[in-house]
């Protein structure tokens, strides 16, 4: 079960969650046959760069691709070989462990001179390309400047600022984004259905939040939870793997403060302390949610842009709370709690009544 990531790796464009702008452009290029010879996929780790590179390589080499579709058939010999990772014409290189110029000469330049053995295109996927040495980049640049017509380069990097501009300017560049909580939940949902396991949506949302936009992390967390649980995953089992998140308690506290119910607020905080909740983390979450409500009141589009969504359950509660509180009150809380965060020691609890 630890390899959910491999087992459910997307095999065509429609299975990829997130990165819609990139998918659309690539699909359009495939449909119209206007593909570039060098691509640069930049962005955080584990958000689908090499996955999309493989699907792209598969689609342009597919022997049975439908007209007007960009999707690979996943059935022809070429598709099957690429899926299995044994296609001779798809060359994946991890630049992190092959940084030198000799590697570029032997594995890339020499190989690029030879026409593909079976496929239409020879595709070089160079992962972590920013790790190449200067001389390796210079050698690579020469072949990217004048590549044989059958060669396609897909350079992937998490640190585009380390890639020479001479290389960047030769590539069609795509900037990958972290994957949203709702998109991650969608994928996790698909996996648990396929595995016939029951996991509460709130747990899936917690996994997605904790993964912070990295799909592979989310899938690996789910794998760990499923490995210790049975057919139905309980809250307690999930708690063993996901560091406890108390967004619900954060919202409860905020609700009490809005209602000016000091007694219950203090009882809640004492209970959290007894439960071993880290007050500093709790306070950070609290401030984060206040910030979200504040921005939501100022400009809802801004919240969407910042991709601050926290999953459906939490979002619903935040919306309800937000309607019962004025912007001034939120600003007041923000100011107080940011100050408390700076001072937090034992005086947190004593200080709370003063805020009220
Ligand atoms: Zn095919």
Automatic annotation (TrEMBL):
UniProt-listed Enzyme Commission number(s): 2.7.7.7
Superkingdom: Bacteria
**EC class:** transferase
Record bears the keyword ATP-binding: yes
InterPro entries, from UniProt?
AAA+_ATPase, DNA_pol3_clamp-load_cplx_C, DNA_pol_III_gamma-3, DNA_pol_III_sug/sutau_N, DNA_Rep/Repair_Clamp_Loader, HLD_clamp_pol_III_gamma_tau, P-loop_NTPase
Task: Answer whether the UniProt record assigns the keyword Glycosyltransferase to this protein.
Answer: no
What is catalyzed by this enzyme? DNA(n) + a 2'-deoxyribonucleoside 5'-triphosphate = DNA(n+1) + diphosphate
Q: Which GO terms describe its biological process?
A: DNA-templated DNA replication
Record keywords, A-Z = ATP-binding, DNA replication, DNA-directed DNA polymerase, Metal-binding, Nucleotide-binding, Nucleotidyltransferase, Transferase, Zinc
Cited function:
DNA polymerase III is a complex, multichain enzyme responsible for most of the replicative synthesis in bacteria. This DNA polymerase also exhibits 3' to 5' exonuclease activity.
What PANTHER family has UniProt attached to this entry? PROTEIN STICHEL-LIKE 2, REPLICATION FACTOR C / DNA POLYMERASE III GAMMA-TAU SUBUNIT
Q: Which family does it belong to?
A: Belongs to the DnaX/STICHEL family.
Q: What is this protein called?
A: DNA polymerase III subunit gamma/tau
Q: Which organism is it from?
A: Candidatus Falkowbacteria bacterium CG_4_9_14_3_um_filter_38_19
Name of the encoding gene: dnaX
């Amino acid at each position: 079960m630890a390899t959910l990531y491999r087992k459910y790796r997307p095999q065509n464009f429609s299975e990829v969650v997130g990165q819609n702008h990139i998918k659309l452009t690539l699909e359009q290029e495939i449909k119209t046959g206007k593909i570039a010879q060098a691509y640069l996929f930049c962005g955080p780790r584990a958000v689908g760069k090499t996955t999309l590179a493989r699907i792209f390589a598969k689609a342009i080499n597919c022997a049975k691709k439908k007209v007007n579709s960009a999707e690979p058939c996943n059935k022809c010999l070429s598709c099957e070989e690429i899926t299995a990772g044994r296609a001779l014409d798809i060359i994946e290189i991890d630049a992190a462990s092959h940084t030198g110029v000799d590697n570029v000469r032997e594995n890339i330049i020499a190989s690029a001179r030879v026409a593909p053995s079976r496929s239409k295109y020879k595709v070089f996927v160079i992962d972590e390309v920013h790790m190449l040495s200067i001389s390796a980049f210079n050698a690579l640049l020469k072949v990217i400047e004048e590549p044989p017509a059958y060669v396609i380069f897909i350079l992937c990097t998490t640190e585009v600022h380390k890639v020479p501009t001479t290389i960047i300017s030769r590539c069609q560049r795509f900037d990958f984004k972290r994957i949203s909580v709702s998109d991650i939940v969608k994928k996790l949902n698909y996996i648990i259905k396929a595995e016939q396991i029951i996991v509460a949506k709130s747990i899936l949302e917690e996994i997605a939040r904790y993964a912070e936009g990295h799909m592979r992390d989310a899938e690996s967390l789910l794998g760990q939870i499923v490995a210790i649980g049975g057919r139905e995953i309980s809250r307690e089992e999930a708690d063993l793997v996901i560091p406890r998140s108390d967004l619900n308690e954060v919202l409860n506290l905020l609700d009490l403060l809005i209602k000016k119910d000091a007694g219950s607020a203090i009882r809640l905080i004492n209970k959290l302390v007894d439960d071993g909740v880290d007050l500093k983390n709790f306070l950070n979450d609290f401030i984060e949610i206040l910030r979200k409500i504040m921005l939501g009141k100022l400009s809802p589009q801004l919240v969407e842009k910042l991709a601050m969504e926290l999953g459906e359950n939490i979002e619903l509660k935040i919306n309800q709370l937000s309607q019962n509180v004025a912007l001034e009150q939120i600003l007041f809380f923000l100011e107080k709690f940011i100050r408390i965060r700076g001072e937090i020691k034992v005086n947190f609890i004593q200080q709370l009544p003063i805020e009220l």
